[in-house]
Amino acid sequence: MFELRQTKEQMALLLLPFFLLLSSSPSVQAQQNITLGSSLTPQSSTSSWLSPSGDFAFGFRPVDGNTSSYLLAVWFNKISNMTVVWYAKNTEEDASVVQVSSSSRLQLTSSGALSLQDPTGTEVWNNQVVGAAHAAMLDSGNFVLAASDGSTKWETFKNPVDTILPSQVLNPGMKLRSRIISTDYSNGRFLLDLQTDGAFFYPVAVPSGYQYDSYWSVPGNDTTNLVFNVSGMIYITSGNGTQNKITSGVITSIEDYYQRATLDPDGVFRQYVYPKKVSNLYPQAWSVTDFKPPNICSAETKVGSGICGFNSYCTLEVTNNQTTCLCPTQYSFIDEGRKYKGCKQDFQPQSCDLDEADAMMQFQLVPMSHVDWPQSDYEQYSPITKDQCQHLCLIDCFCAVAVFNDGDNTCWKKKMPLSNGIIGDGVQRTVFIKVPKNKGQQSELIDSSTWKKDKKYWILGSSLFLGSSFLVNIILISVLLFGTYCCINRKKVPTLQSPSSLVLPLKSFTYAELEKATSRFQEVLGTGASGIVYKGQLQDDLGTCIAVKKIDKLEQESEKEFAVEVQAVGRTHHKNLVRLLGFCNEGKERLLVYEFMSNGSLNTFLFGDVRLQWNLRVQLALGVARGLVYLHEECSTQIIHCDIKPQNILLDGNFTAKISDFGLAKLLRTNQTQTNTGIRGTRGYVAPEWFKNTGITAKVDVYSFGVILLELISCRPNVDLGVAEEDQKILAYWANDCYRCGRVDILVEGDDEAICNLKVVERFVAVALWCLQEDPTMRPTMLKVTQMLDGGVVIPPPADPSSFVSSLR
Ligand SMILES: *[C@@H]1O[C@H](CO)[C@@H](O)[C@H](O)[C@H]1NC(C)=O
Ligand SMILES: *[C@@H]1O[C@H](CO)[C@@H](O)[C@H](O)[C@H]1NC(C)=O
Ligand SMILES: *[C@@H]1O[C@H](CO)[C@@H](O)[C@H](O)[C@H]1NC(C)=O
Ligand SMILES: *[C@@H]1O[C@H](CO)[C@@H](O)[C@H](O)[C@H]1NC(C)=O
Ligand SMILES: *[C@@H]1O[C@H](CO)[C@@H](O)[C@H](O)[C@H]1NC(C)=O
Ligand SMILES: *[C@@H]1O[C@H](CO)[C@@H](O)[C@H](O)[C@H]1NC(C)=O
Ligand SMILES: *[C@@H]1O[C@H](CO)[C@@H](O)[C@H](O)[C@H]1NC(C)=O
């Protein structure tokens, strides 16, 4: 016996660092009565006392990640992580955690009290009760000091910290206080206070402990106790004997399961179970069986940051019911390991010396849907238009976020720091957060600059077409009626356009009128293949903003044909199409007058520094799809767009997607489904049949939509030769590979919101792969596409679109 123990101790010494890491001390013996005079030291063989079963230990254990600092604690001793359920805290006002060095000592003194002394012999902690005859670590997890008559003088169960165990009962006045983070035992930001009228959960200010208004409570009347009974029920009892449940728990026996309930660092009170033996009900880990409150993200504090830190926002993840704090775009955590500290701006805040023009040049408002910071308003305007609201925020150096409610035309400005941030389906609000514009995007001619920026890209583009030499000429002359209309509005001049201007009948303008409206064609919005687009403003009462396209390559078109086609386009009316307001057909001059889209084209948002929110991207994809359904199926004459690409998707002030430039397509009669009209599309977005001299159907738009859908999912262009990995240069191949491996998450890496919605991401990728089928007849119609995106129909696994190579290389 002696020999055996000797060996064990030698082993313990040899393996000391290892054991310290595991904070285990296997050489101590389970013992029932700890006699007066017994002591523990962190690095000796007796660093803890075990309960008879060995399930629990009381003693010294190293602070996670710091082997020179120890807690005096009670922990589960048989499970791998040795979860701490109690730790000594100072009894003074601040109730801070007691952490001591390796040469400290705990003694059960002859006066019958626990005394913790530092290396100099100074007492740093005691249990404040004397007169015990012995101590014991019980199998319930309660460490008790008992008098000689067996009565309890002091126990950890009546001095709880952040965790309670089965059979533990709290009385009014007792509190649980969360840790700051799971590895730092300092006082955290949440408190459960048991009062005579119920159990109340409070956010508290750190470090003062000041209590804000409670965020959850379980009422009681003349409450006597909070009980965690051995069947796993947690409830409070009222004076007349009624019980009010806190958690519904699960009936599990304490023979088979370890159980605990902890006020976690995120403010959620969770009940956990851990199977003692291998079980097919639960994994060998702590599983949450219930938690309160149901959604802590909706808790608000009048003062303070709320559940997450300042400037961040809170989400309850549906996959695991965990609380997550996120930073808005162009903000990042002050401390990744301590997210409660909040988010900081990654940019120079707007200087108050900036004049209006510069403010609008340098900053933009990015929409975030289903997000709100309800407590940060500092100014309100009503009635007001949305554009005016955004403008007023943009030019105000105090304004961090603008919110517009179109129900009552009210505008709010919010200031820093933003508090009580929340995102969720229940939040019916789109806020606009102010961030700097991307410097690289200042150029007005996005299209040409991207081509210049990457020569390889250009070469790929031209070789693609030169390789199919017969097409070159067709491309040059195929710039038909409306050409590439690329409306990029960098200046974002606020428009005072009212919704009523959208129902103007198609109007015939004189050239002089348009010359005046555009101040002699001064402000260029974009340059397309068929002409230049200018910004203008009508002289009507509303001062309606317009985009005027001057077509300059239209020798062959007769006046009559022009009028016929324009009238056809003018008859289209759909939320997701850019509205043609009028035209000018005077002598040689052909001009088209469109409604002005204050947010420019999709590509400037999609591939810029600011990642559009996932929810918004989903809305954009649905909008484009619906616009195409209308063109393909709901017009009296079917319209095939033939050049669907992000530059042709414009965004209005509400970030609604609007397809532009659909005049590029020859208008097709619905009975005439196939036509050979030569290539009209844009490299990277064109369907393979363009290269095959086969008939062109509406399915070419379905193909292009598939490409855009992938770009919306992953926020990167279809062709990106700057990517290091060969197999990721073409998005369509890469997405196909990811889908086949069941790893669509790679496509949305770093996009927390999308990651939370992985099922939707996967569905969207599957729809995109269907759209990209080489055989046009295999591609779904746009109507079918909208149904698949909505999740209304089951999507069969898409066939491997082996056509990628032939269509893109
Ligand atoms: C470990 O704890 C000691 C005392 O509490 C502290 O001085 C030291 O900085 C800590 N070390 C680390 C790595 O956190
Ligand atoms: C523990 O001590 C008490 C008296 O303090 C005694 O009655 C009891 O029998 C002891 N138990 C054991 C297992 O030694
Ligand atoms: C609490 O109990 C008292 C008397 O027992 C009663 O008058 C009072 O209405 C009760 N309050 C609630 C909230 O039930
Ligand atoms: C625990 O509480 C529940 C609900 O009050 C009760 O049904 C159950 O019998 C209790 N279990 C024990 C062992 O007392
Ligand atoms: C106890 O009081 C509550 C109201 O405070 C009442 O609803 C309940 O019926 C009472 N229960 C008993 C057992 O008297
Ligand atoms: C143990 O802790 C690690 C890190 O803290 C965690 O990832 C793991 O899930 C825990 N294991 C159990 C069984 O709880
Ligand atoms: C999340 O919590 C809800 C409500 O308590 C529960 O119905 C659901 O099963 C939980 N989800 C997961 C993944 O645990």
Estimate percent helicity. Answer: 10-25%
CATH architecture designation of the domain at 602-808: Orthogonal Bundle
Tell me the CATH topology of the domain at 602-808.
Answer: Transferase(Phosphotransferase), domain 1
Percentage beta strand: 25-35%
Stretches with pLDDT under 50, minimum 5 residues: 1-30, 439-504, 667-680, 805-809
Number of strands: 44
State the strand order across the main sheet: 37-41-42-40-39-38
From the spread of the alpha carbons, the general shape counts as elongated
CATH class categorisation of the domain at 602-808: Mainly Alpha
Mean pLDDT over the full residue set:
80
Write a structural description.
The chain is of the alpha+beta class and 809 residues long. Among the domains are: 2-159, Bulb-type lectin domain (Agglutinin, subunit A); 454-489; 493-595, Phosphorylase Kinase, domain 1; 602-808, Transferase(Phosphotransferase), domain 1 (Orthogonal Bundle), CATH 1.10.510.10. It is 21% helix and 26% strand. It is built from 17 helices and 44 strands. It has a 6-stranded mixed beta sheet with strand order 37-41-42-40-39-38, sandwiched between helices. Strand 11 (134-137) and strand 12 form a beta hairpin. Helix 11 runs antiparallel to helix 12, helix 11 (614-634) packs antiparallel against helix 16 and helix 13 (731-740) crosses helix 15. The longest helix is centred in the C-terminal third of the chain and has 21 residues, at 614-634. It is elongated and about 115 Å long. The termini are far apart. The model is unreliable at 1-30, 439-504, 667-680 and 805-809 (pLDDT under 50). The structure holds 2-acetamido-2-deoxy-beta-D-glucopyranose (7 copies). Keywords: ATP-binding, Disulfide bond, EGF-like domain, Glycoprotein, Kinase, Lectin, Membrane, Nucleotide-binding, Receptor, Serine/threonine-protein kinase, Signal, Transferase, Transmembrane, Transmembrane helix. It is found in: Membrane. Residues 31-158 form the Bulb-type lectin domain. ATP binds at residue 550. It is an enzyme of class 2 (transferase).
